[in-house]
Structure formats: structure tokens, C-alpha cells
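Training component of the fellowship. As part of building independent skills, the fellow (R.M.) carried out the full modelling exercise for a liganded target. The chosen ligand was glutamine. The inputs are recorded below so that the supervisory panel can assess the work.
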Amino acid sequence: MPTELTGYDPSLGNKFIFVTGGVMSGLGKGITAASTGRLLADAGFDVTAVKIDPYLNVDAGTMNPYQHGEVYVLKDGGEVDLDLGNYERFLDIDMTFDHNVTTGKAYRHVIEKERAGDYLGNTVQIIPHVTDDIKRRIREAAEGNDICLVEVGGTVGDIEGMPYLEALRQFAHEEDDEDILFAHVTLVPYSQAGEQKTKPTQHSVKELRSIGLQPDIVVGRCEDRLEPKTKEKIALFCDVPVEAVFSNPDVEDIYRVPLMVEEEGLDEYVMERLDLEETAASPADRADEWREVVTGETTDTVEIALAGKYDLEDAYISIHEALKHAGFETNTDVEVLWVDTDEMEAAHADRLQRADGVVVPGGFGARGLDGKIDVVRYAREHDVPFLGLCLGFQMAVVEFARNVCKLEGAHSAEVDEDTPHPVIDILPEQYEIEDMGGTMRLGAHETDVEAGTLAHEVYGADSCTERHRHRYEVNPEYIEAIEREGMTFSGRAGNRMEILELDDHPFFFGTQFHPEFRSRPGRASPPFVALVEAVLGGAEIDAGEVTA
Ligand code: GLN
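Fellow's submitted model of the complex:
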């Protein structure tokens, strides 16, 4: 939702909002930051973000979603922390790999320079060499924007975070006061007596100050809004004006956080502090599509089963969000029913039978795979609207090959190297690759969409560009046998099968790519909208037993 800039003078240079977290992680500081960014964008500024992840991994690509949540994929193929997904969704921007700074990246670069002799004669140290590298990365990522949000992952006091906080301290010295703002997001818990407690906040700000950083604003995450006396206490102990203490209470939908933050006046305070009020659009002229999109009335409710193996909501966050966006677009409340494909008995099978539609998401490895194949079969045989993504697409091919094409034992070579019918096989360019980091087919690639197909209806175009993250693909040797039986590969990129559909089904759609990564509120991903529409359109579901 881009808004025309209202007279902002780029010669003023970038403004930086540094966001740190206190007390515990998982407080939603990314959402708080992204929400603030949304409001600044609505006021006419170009806003971008940098996420700092203080872990030693170079990127998130090798991490287990069960521990860290989903690996988010950027258009340039960067495999990053899921927070970048939130920034893309809230700010409606496309970020690049450079917007994720990790300790692995910074140290690797410094060590490579040391080996090349760039620091010849010097002792290479965290300060200044690593801190310089961190500052350079932030400045480069901010280039071309008015405001850059910089979120430091983890919690103040973590050993891993120290070089970053030191880098930010130096950064603040190098810039003018009105170009830098420090926001500290912290937890304000209730005591058993029902009182809002500020001690954890006081301690984390104390920790921040011991490193030489003084927050300009403090945002208290709490079940409810902070009471005036809580704000006063935080102001007094943390040495900020009481107007600089904000609440960010729990809300049932993250997309309402910008509205909450706006009610508290956080955006106005930030603009004033960064000397931006003159150039900001007047409140009456600010964009308000966001509010319209996220507060729209819903007229229907649908239940979509998400059949995965990680029982952690964050592992499939972009799919959840894409379903919500499809709900915004169709005025529908989309509820997600969790179906664990490792536990296809009892409760999980019941949920599958109750569902109006099914999504089988991406994934790696053998665990839960038989369950996924059962879910695909159930959706295919009972005319349940189905969307298969990446591994879900691959399992749709495997299920069809086995049960319709009668290719006994058909499988993906990823999990069964000895299958007589490797209908899904390793990409030829992957044969020689041994490293696991950043070596898949990654990022945005174009797919040709065949005219006259469901895919063409869904995308409304002859091509689509979506993000990828996979090593295996449909084996070209089986295409003819599969298509002969009524599965059509309606989206292709040369020899690569990208989209599948079934002729004889109300809605059976699979994509080798991950459309969920491009879905935004107000610009929902077409396959997700099509799934919800198929459900609303009353696809005849012939509910029956889940056959294992
Ligand atoms: N494991 C499969 C592959 O590598 C699917 C990957 C995915 O679902 N992201 O091709």
C-alpha cells in the first residue's frame, strides 16, 4: 500500500529505529516494530527493516522449524528468520538477504578479510572489526529508504547480543540525535494480586544502560493496557518521560497491533522525536487501507485442516497468515484445524473429516509422510478442496502415481532411494552438492501458466513468479503416465513441473513453489484465495472415513 511521499527531503538522510527486547524473548517485539513501521509508511515514508539474529548460523536455512519456527524465504533466495516475513507482510515490501544480519555472516566476513590480509599488521577484534562490519551492514540495508527499523533478536543481556548492542552504541554516536531512536520492548507481568509489575522492566533497562544505551521509549507488553501508575513508575525508574511509555496489550489478531499502537500515539511520538512531523502526511491524509482490510466484516466461517508434522504454530506461520489474508479478501473467518500427520488416529482424523478444505504444507524427511499421503488421498477421493505446497505437491504426485496410475511403490527419492518409481527425484543440478547451507533451488522463479487451466483462472495470467525452496522435483520420465490419468501439470518452468491440478475434482491444486511467502494483507496469495473460494462455493464434499 504505497503512499505518495509528502515533501520529505531525502537529503535529511536515513532515520534509524533500534528495537531491543527485555525480560524474555517471544514478546512480539518484531510485531511491535513492524506495526510502528506500518504507521510510518502510512504517513508517507519509505520504511524498511533489518533483523539482527545473534546466532552463529550464517542463515536460518539449516535450522529446525520445530525450534525456531519457519524458515522464511526471500525473493533473492535468502533463507531467514520468520520475523522478516512479518516485516514484509506489515510493510508490504520485498526484502533481501542483506536485511538479515547474523553473527555467522559478520564473523565469516571479518575472518575472510583477515585471511586475505586486509587487516595486515593488526590484531583483529570484536571492537572495532566486527562492530564496524555490523554498522556497515545496517547502513547498506537502509540505503534508499527514509526510515530503517533495526530489531535486535534475543534479549538484552544475552552474551551473543553484546557485539550488536556495542555496535548500536557506536552507531548512535556517529549519527545526529534526531536520526536515532531506541525503543525497548519489555514484559509487564501481573502479580498474583492482579497488579502490573515493573521490576523486570526496570532490570532490563538497567542492563541496557550498563552497556551505555538509554531507551528513548519503552513499550510494555502486557495482557491489558498499562495503567497510568504503571507508566509513571516505568518512566521514573527507566529515566524516560511518561509520554514515552506505551502499552502493547494482547490482541486476538496481530494485524490489529498497528491500530492499537496508533491509539497509544506511539507513531506520533516517534515522528516527533525523529523530527519527521513536518514532512509526514497530516493525519487526515494518511493511508488507511490497512484498517479497512484488517477490520472488514466477515460473513462466513470456514475450517481448513493444516496437515503437518510440527505442532508448533510458528513452523507454518506464513501459511497461517496467507489463509488469514485469503479470509480478508473473501470476508471469511478462516479457522485452522491442526492435523498432525504423525498421529492420524482419533482426534486428528476427526479434525480432517470436519475440515472444509485441506492444506498439506512443505517439509523435509520421512516423518509424517505416510500420514500426508493419506490426507492427500482423503481429499482427492472425497472431493475436499485441497492445496498442496512443495512437499504437499510432491506427495500429491506420489499418491496419484500409486493409487491412480498404479505405479506400485512410487515415492520420492528423498525418502526412498530404492523406490521402483522415483516420481519425485533429485534435481540434476543437486547431484554434486554436498553442503547443506543455501544450496537448494531457492527464491523467486517464473512459472509459465497454461491457458484454459484452473491455474490460469487462479493466477489470471500467463505466468507467475513465486518463491522456491526445494531439492526434489517431478521426474520428467513420469509426466506422460501421470497426465494420461487426469492430473495436469498446468504450470511449468521448462522441464520443471511447478503447478498440478486434477481435472475431475472441485479444487485440487498443488504448487512446487511456496506461494505463502508472497501473501500480504490486501494482496492475498491467489492459490489461498482460490482454496477459500472453492470451499465457499460449496464444493460438494463427500465426507467419509479416512483410509490409512
Ligand atoms: N523436501 C522436499 C524437497 O526438498 C520439499 C521441500 C519443501 O517442502 N520445502 O524438494
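The panel noted the following from the submitted structure. Residues 1-11 have pLDDT under 50 and may be disordered. The first strand starts at residue 15 and ends at 21.
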